[in-house]
């Protein structure tokens, strides 16, 4: 394992190129039971400040927090390229170096092995022969016995599953017969990989072992959520990580310094490097475009450059190979020349064969060059060296275009089918496979490395594994995803062919949609985003599809000369085709009603327009793209919300771009970045724009930003950030929301940021707190009580609060007493909702004393508490003194006819009261009816 985990492809290895990334602990909003929502929507989005505090190092993955029980069912989350597999391999490597001593065995099970469908496996063969990186096992029976004897010391890692759904299917209840058969004899070689995976995941096999499952977070995961005890997410690269990565990648100090410099000057590329997979692509471009070439400015540009470089490298190396071969052929030709009577006939024959292979062509051209003067002697040989080269180039290009066209069509098929596995069979020609491998776009995964080994017959098991790990010269992920084999690229039963890089797959799929002759305008139109009817659709858009759409649109507006190599149209036909599709895109995007787009779609629209407008390498724009930017900037809603949309660092840039553009046209925006997890640096860039009138964001992050600005002495900016910040209305859905609010109220009351001595900017307090008129606690009865002590402390600071909604927070009598004390300061309060809070007589009696002191309170709900007659009496006493109260609700409490009659009698002295709701089952209906007859303000409902 130590050897086979190391390789990261292209001469990179874990030991020399791995960057230690952090993990963040994620939580889900609901209990996770019976939920059918998408996991990424269920995940609580943490603010940056809290996220930084919650980060875990790799050494803590298996440990419970604060000495809790160790984690046994861990889900590792991360989008494409975020480094899940790499992290897992690092864990394996660390384990092989004794750094994770709690496990005696680690097995790496790949989702791709599910392609093996024949029922010929046992748990033993699965672990010892099929798991990736498993070394040769000299005494499998003894090892297996040891595994079974201490399953608690076994770690099973599942990786390489396409999506959450694949796990969910494996978690469907197993048939009883299968369970008993597995429990009776797990050594019988009669099970499919699927059955064994299912049984391990469902803890039928290897109970007590630790499971680590990697997955992308899109899709529903109700079954998984029920089982996992830890959700961890790979965080991606910080700016420091990016520097570390670059300094490891560029070992030459000169190159390193210039690469870092160039990257820092290219903000968007730098932001993209947050994703390690993209960081690697960026390095590839930085490495190979050392000269003065302009760096790509968009994701389309980046992937385009990477593909271009790969193709150039490939054609260089195939040429040099062909030339090397031709040298040999020249010699042999020359040797045999005397025996060939009519060489010119051979030559002529070749010349007239347009489909000759590159090697043939080169052999010939090289042989001409080698022979020099002989060329003139041969009058029939009328093609000179240069002419030949251009023919060669043409032949190469034509072939390359053909291959690209096939590749991109396959890539689109994969994106449609949500799969990175290439179809087996004839669809992928040998030539295409070879091209895919040479360019590192494909890698082949070897499903099975060994024959089933039982003790006694020990075959050369691991050998193949190790040889294959080192194979391949340029694969993005070769060596990163299990076994592979570049020599034997055929997708036989034991091999499957995969796309090595999700971004390049999507780029090629986008290429197919935008430039292929086979995609009609109508079909193209249907693939564009935001189709009508999509808004209501629950199914989330998959990452690859979203990227593909972005690339397709980006490519259409790309520099036309750059695209020449990718298509086979004539110049005019190409121009017309592009113009027609550009018009379709423009019409489609301009026809959108931006008010109807949800926040995630608004973000996506910003990305499209960014790709369209900035793809030209030289920074120039064409008029079509300028028009699209202007249109979006003019039509974005004034209140622009990204609430609930996780914002990656690279999302910030396109949004900033469009907001700035709006600013040049005089547009002002109110930005809602709450619950988006935006990084503080991104927050600063966006809300620092001049045309942002107001903004909302995670309170703790805003405070951190203020502190940073104060420390750096940026007073002007701080002033703006303080005055633009808004928190009204505030709905607390997480415990931390109240903690953050408490911090803000503290700043407000002390009129300074925590460490500062005095602060003129905050001399009048925090405007956002002064303007907070409505506060709702929506944490429910489980989490609500956790924040109540903090809430009682902070409430007196909210002088201008008009509406306080504490429904269903399990306040109880004790809480009600504390609340009563806090309420004295809330002279502006108009509405108080204390429904469903277990408040009894004691609590309500205490409350009653302060309620009378609230001059503006007009609506009080004590619905569904446990107030009985004594409490009702207290309320009845205070009611006539509450001059502003118009509506009181004490329905579904415990008062009987006695309490009801007291309240009814008190009502007579309350001229302003409009409604009194008090019905419950303890009040005889007759009494209630009588009271109603006397005063029609008493209502049943
Ligand atoms: N911590 C890291 N240090 C150095 N390079 C990394 C790191 N994490 C990822 N990479 C680079 O990024 C590339 C993509 O990472 P990886 O394959 O692990 O992503 P993934 O999350 O498994 O993606 P997918 O969901 O597509 O399978 C790797 O090939 C590797 O080169």
UniProtKB/TrEMBL annotation:
<dbReference type="InterPro" id="IPR007111">
    <property type="entry name" value="NACHT_NTPase"/>
</dbReference>
<protein>
    <submittedName>
        <fullName>Class II major histocompatibility complex transactivator</fullName>
    </submittedName>
</protein>
<dbReference type="GO" id="GO:0005524">
    <property type="term" value="F:ATP binding"/>
</dbReference>
<dbReference type="GO" id="GO:0045348">
    <property type="term" value="P:positive regulation of MHC class II biosynthetic process"/>
</dbReference>
<feature type="domain" description="NACHT">
    <location>
        <begin position="72"/>
        <end position="217"/>
    </location>
</feature>
<feature type="region of interest" description="Disordered">
    <location>
        <begin position="314"/>
        <end position="389"/>
    </location>
</feature>
<keyword id="KW-0677">Repeat</keyword>
<keyword id="KW-0067">ATP-binding</keyword>
<dbReference type="InterPro" id="IPR032675">
    <property type="entry name" value="LRR_dom_sf"/>
</dbReference>
<dbReference type="InterPro" id="IPR027417">
    <property type="entry name" value="P-loop_NTPase"/>
</dbReference>
<dbReference type="InterPro" id="IPR001611">
    <property type="entry name" value="Leu-rich_rpt"/>
</dbReference>
<dbReference type="GO" id="GO:0045944">
    <property type="term" value="P:positive regulation of transcription by RNA polymerase II"/>
</dbReference>
<feature type="compositionally biased region" description="Basic and acidic residues">
    <location>
        <begin position="456"/>
        <end position="487"/>
    </location>
</feature>
<feature type="region of interest" description="Disordered">
    <location>
        <begin position="453"/>
        <end position="487"/>
    </location>
</feature>
<dbReference type="Pfam" id="PF05729">
    <property type="entry name" value="NACHT"/>
</dbReference>
<feature type="compositionally biased region" description="Basic residues">
    <location>
        <begin position="359"/>
        <end position="373"/>
    </location>
</feature>
<feature type="compositionally biased region" description="Polar residues">
    <location>
        <begin position="318"/>
        <end position="358"/>
    </location>
</feature>
<dbReference type="Pfam" id="PF13516">
    <property type="entry name" value="LRR_6"/>
</dbReference>
<keyword id="KW-0433">Leucine-rich repeat</keyword>
<dbReference type="GO" id="GO:0045345">
    <property type="term" value="P:positive regulation of MHC class I biosynthetic process"/>
</dbReference>
<keyword id="KW-0547">Nucleotide-binding</keyword>
């Amino acid at each position: 394992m130590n050897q086979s985990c190391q390789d990261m492809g292209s001469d990179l290895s874990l030991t020399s190129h791995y960057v230690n990334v952090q993990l963040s602990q994620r939580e889900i909003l609901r209990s996770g039971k019976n939920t059918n929502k998408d996991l990424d929507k269920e995940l609580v989005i943490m603010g940056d400040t809290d996220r930084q505090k919650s980060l875990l190092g790799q050494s803590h993955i298996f440990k419970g927090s604060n000495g809790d029980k160790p984690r046994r069912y861990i889900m590792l989350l991360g989008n494409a390229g975020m480094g899940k597999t790499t992290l897992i391999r690092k864990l394996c490597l660390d384990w092989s170096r004794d750094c994770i001593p709690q496990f005696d065995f680690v097995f790496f099970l790949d989702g791709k092995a599910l392609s093996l469908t024949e029922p010929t496996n046992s748990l033993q063969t699965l672990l010892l022969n099929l798991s990736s990186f498993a070394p040769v096992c000299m005494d499998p029976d003894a090892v297996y016995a040891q595994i079974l004897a201490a399953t608690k010391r076994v770690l099973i890692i599942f990786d390489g599953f396409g999506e959450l759904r694949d796990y969910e299917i494996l978690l469907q209840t197993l048939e009883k017969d299968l369970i008993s058969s597995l429990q009776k004899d797990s050594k019988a070689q009669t099970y499919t990989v699927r059955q064994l995976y299912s049984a391990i995941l469902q803890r039928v096999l290897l109970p007590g072992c630790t499971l680590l499952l990697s997955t992308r977070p899109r899709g529903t995961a109700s079954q998984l959520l029920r089982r996992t005890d830890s959700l961890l997410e790979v965080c991606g690269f910080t700016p420091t990580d990016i520097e570390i990565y670059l300094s490891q990648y560029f070992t030459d100090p000169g190159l390193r310094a210039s690469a870092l410099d160039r990257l820092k000057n290219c903000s968007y590329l730098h932001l993209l490097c947050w994703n390690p997979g993209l960081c690697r692509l960026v390095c590839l471009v930085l490495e190979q475009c050392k000269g003065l070439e302009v760096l790509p400015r968009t994701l389309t540009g980046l992937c385009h450059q990477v593909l271009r470089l790969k193709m150039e490298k490939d054609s260089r190396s195939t040429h040099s190979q062909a030339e090397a071969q031709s040298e040999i052929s020249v010699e042999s030709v020359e040797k045999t020349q005397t025996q060939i009577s009519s060489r010119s006939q051979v030559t002529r024959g070749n010349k007239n064969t347009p489909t000759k292979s590159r090697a043939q062509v080169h052999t010939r051209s090289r042989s001409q060059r080698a022979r020099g003067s002989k060329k003139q002697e041969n009058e029939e040989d009328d093609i000179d060296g240069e002419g030949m080269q251009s023919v060669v180039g043409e032949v190469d290009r034509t072939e390359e275009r053909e291959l690209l066209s096939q590749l991109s069509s396959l890539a689109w098929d994969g994106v449609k089918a949500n799969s990175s596995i290439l179809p087996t069979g004839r669809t992928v020609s040998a030539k295409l496979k070879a091209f895919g491998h040479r360019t590192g776009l494909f890698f082949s995964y070897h499903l099975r490395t060994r024959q089933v080994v039982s003790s006694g017959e020990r075959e050369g098991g691991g050998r193949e594994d190790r040889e294959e790990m080192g194979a391949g010269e340029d694969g993005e992920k070769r060596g990163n995803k299990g076994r592979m084999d570049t020599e034997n690229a055929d997708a036989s039963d034991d091999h499957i062919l995969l796309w090595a890089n999700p971004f390049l797959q999507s780029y090629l799929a986008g290429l197919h949609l935008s430039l292929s002759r086979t995609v009609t305008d109508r079909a193209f139109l249907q693939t564009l985003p935001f189709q009508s009817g999509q808004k209501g659709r629950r199914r989330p858009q998959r990452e690859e599809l979203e990227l593909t759409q972005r690339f397709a649109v980006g490519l259409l507006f790309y520099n036309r000369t750059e695209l020449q190599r990718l298509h086979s149209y004539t110049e005019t036909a190409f121009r017309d085709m592009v113009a027609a599709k550009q018009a379709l895109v423009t019409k489609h995007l301009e026809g959108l009603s931006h008010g109807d787009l949800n926040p995630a779609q608004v973000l996506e629209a910003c990305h499209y327009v960014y790709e369209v407008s900035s793809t030209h390498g030289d920074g120039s724009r064409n008029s079509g793209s300028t028009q699209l930017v202007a249109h979006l900037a003019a039509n974005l809603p004034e209140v622009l919300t990204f609430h609930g949309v996780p914002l990656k660092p690279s999302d910030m840039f396109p949004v900033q771009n469009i907001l700035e553009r709006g600013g040049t046209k005089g547009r002002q925006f109110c930005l809602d970045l709450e619950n988006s997890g935006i990084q503080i640096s991104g927050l600063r860039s966006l809300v620092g724009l001049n045309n942002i009138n107001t903004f909302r964001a995670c309170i703790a992050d805003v405070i951190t930003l203020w502190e940073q600005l104060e420390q750096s002495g940026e007073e002007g900016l701080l002033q703006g950030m303080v005055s633009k910040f808004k928190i009204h209305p505030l709905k607390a859905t997480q415990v931390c929301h109240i903690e953050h609010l408490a911090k803000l109220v503290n700043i407000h009351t002390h009129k300074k940021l925590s460490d500062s001595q005095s602060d003129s900017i905050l001399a009048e307090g925090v405007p956002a707190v002064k303007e907070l008129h409505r506060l709702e606690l929506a944490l429910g009865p489980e989490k609500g009580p956790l924040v109540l002590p903090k809430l009682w402390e902070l409430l007196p600071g909210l002088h201008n609060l008009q509406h306080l909604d504490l429904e269903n927070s399990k306040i109880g009598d004790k809480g009600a007493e504390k609340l009563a004390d806090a309420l004295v300061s809330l002279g502006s309060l108009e509405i108080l909702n204390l429904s469903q809070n277990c408040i009894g007589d004691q609590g309500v009696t205490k409350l009653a004393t302060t309620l009378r002191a609230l001059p503006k309170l007009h609506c009080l709900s004590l619905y569904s508490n446990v107030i009985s007659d004594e409490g009702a009496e207290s309320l009845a006493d205070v009611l006539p003194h509450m001059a502003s109260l118009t509506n009181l609700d004490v329905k579904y409490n415990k008062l009987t006819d006695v309490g009801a009659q007291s309240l009814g009698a008190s009502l007579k002295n309350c001229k302003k009261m409009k409604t009194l709701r008090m019905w419950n089952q303890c009040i005889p209906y007759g009494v209630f009816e009588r009271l109603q007859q006397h005063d029609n303000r008493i209502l049943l409902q």
